[in-house]
Design goal:
Elements: H1 3-8, H2 22-37, E1 42-43, H3 44-58, H4 67-72, E2 79-83, E3 86-87, H5 94-99, E4 103-106, H6 108-116, H7 119-132, H8 138-145, H9 151-155, H10 169-176, E5 189-190, E6 193-194, E7 197-201, E8 216-220, H11 221-228, E9 232-234, E10 240-242, H12 251-256, H13 277-286
Antiparallel strand pairs: 1-4, 2-3, 2-4, 5-6, 7-8, 9-10
Helix pairs in contact: 2-7
C-alpha cells in the first residue's frame, strides 16, 4: 500500500479552492503522538481543545469542530475509532464522542509500516505540509503539533504527489516591487544582497496558486508570515486589510501591523502585473480571519 499517495488524497474532496485542513491537521497531530509514544491513541475528550485550537489557528475563518475529522477520517483508510462499546465511531456529534469515550488512532497497518520504515513518518508529514500549507508555516506547524522532523526527512519529498515550483518567481516578484515590502516599504540589504525580503503567494501554491507576478507580493519576513496567518489581507482597491481579531498593545504591534489598515500597497512597477482579483478574493475567503479593521487614522 502506498501510504504517501493515500496521505495526498486527504484533501481531494475540496472544490473551487476551498481549504479543508481538518483531516491533514488531525493526521499531523496523530503522527506526532505516534512519534512520542508508539501508540498514538487519542481520546477525543482529552484532545478536543487542542485540536480545536489548531483548526482555529491554521484553518479558514469559518466555524468548525474537530469532531468532523475525528469521525470522517475513518473513511480514508488511515484512521480507526473505538468507543466504550467497541469498534466504530458514534458519529460527528461532540456529545456522543465525549460520552462514549471515543478514541482514535492510526490504523494497525499504518502503525506497522511506520515501525518498519521510520523515515515514512517524515515523508508523510512533508506531503501533508506541502499540499495544505505554505512553506512559511511549516516549521511553526510542526512545533504546534509536537512533530520533530530530521533535516533529511524535511528535504525528502513524495515526488509523485508534488508539482514543481518555479525558482524564478522570487526574482520576478522582488523586481516587480523594486525590492521593497509592499506593505511597509522595508528594503534592507547586506551589500548588494536583499535580506529579509520574500516572494509571498497570495493564493497558496498548495491550492493551485501560480508562480506568477500576478499572484505574488514582495514582503518582509514579518508581513509574509502575517499574510499567511490571515492577520493581513488585500482589499478590492489594493489597500491593506488588518483583521479585527489581531490584538497587539505594544508600540511595535501598532506601528508594524495595526497602522497598516487601509494603506495602499507599495508597488508594483507600472509595467508589472498587480495582484489578480481572483487570487485576492481566494485569500480573503480562505485565509483572512474575521472582519477588517477600519483604516488607521
Amino acid at each position: 500500500m502506498d501510504w504517501l499517495e493515500r496521505t495526498a488524497t486527504l484533501r481531494q474532496w475540496s472544490r473551487n479552492g476551498a481549504r479543508a485542513p481538518h483531516k491533514p491537521l488531525l493526521v499531523l497531530y496523530a503522527l506526532a503522538r505516534f512519534q512520542r509514544d508508539g501508540s498514538g491513541e487519542l481520546r477525543y475528550s482529552s484532545v478536543e481543545a487542542e485540536l480545536k485550537r489548531l483548526l482555529d489557528e491554521y484553518g479558514p475563518g469559518r466555524p468548525t469542530t474537530p469532531a468532523y475529522p475525528f469521525h470522517h477520517l475513518v473513511s480514508d483508510g488511515v484512521w480507526e475509532v473505538r468507543t466504550d462499546r467497541g469498534a466504530g465511531s458514534p458519529g460527528t456529534g461532540v456529545r456522543e464522542l465525549r460520552a462514549t469515550g471515543a478514541t482514535g488512532r492510526l490504523v494497525p497497518e499504518l502503525r506497522d509500516a511506520l515501525r518498519r520504515e521510520p523515515s515514512l513518518l517524515g515523508r508523510m508529514a512533508r506531503v501533508l505540509l506541502d499540499l495544505n500549507f505554505p512553506p512559511s508555516l511549516h516549521e511553526e506547524l510542526c512545533e504546534a503539533v509536537g512533530l520533530e522532523l530530521q533535516p533529511a526527512e524535511i528535504a525528502e519529498a513524495g515526488t509523485a504527489v508534488r508539482r514543481g515550483r518555479d525558482p524564478r518567481m522570487r526574482e520576478r516578484v522582488l523586481t516587480a516591487y523594486e525590492y521593497r515590502c509592499a506593505f511597509c516599504g522595508y528594503d534592507g540589504r547586506i551589500g548588494a544582497v536583499p535580506v529579509g525580503l520574500e516572494a509571498a503567494h497570495v493564493r497558496w501554491w498548495a491550492f493551485d496558486g501560480p508562480d506568477e507576478v500576478e499572484n505574488g507580493l514582495c514582503l518582509c519576513s514579518l508581513h509574509h508570515k502575517l499574510l499567511d496567518k490571515g492577520v493581513l489581507g488585500l482589499g478590492a482597491d489594493d489597500r491593506i486589510l488588518v483583521s479585527q481579531s489581531f490584538v497587539g498593545h505594544s508600540a511595535a504591534a501598532g506601528a508594524h501591523v495595526i497602522a497598516l489598515a487601509g494603506r495602499p500597497l507599495i508597488g508594483p512597477q507600472p509595467s508589472a502585473a498587480p495582484v489578480a482579483p481572483d487570487h485576492r478574493a481566494w485569500h480573503a475567503r480562505e485565509v483572512f480571519h474575521g472582519v477588517p479593521r477600519a483604516a488607521a487614522g
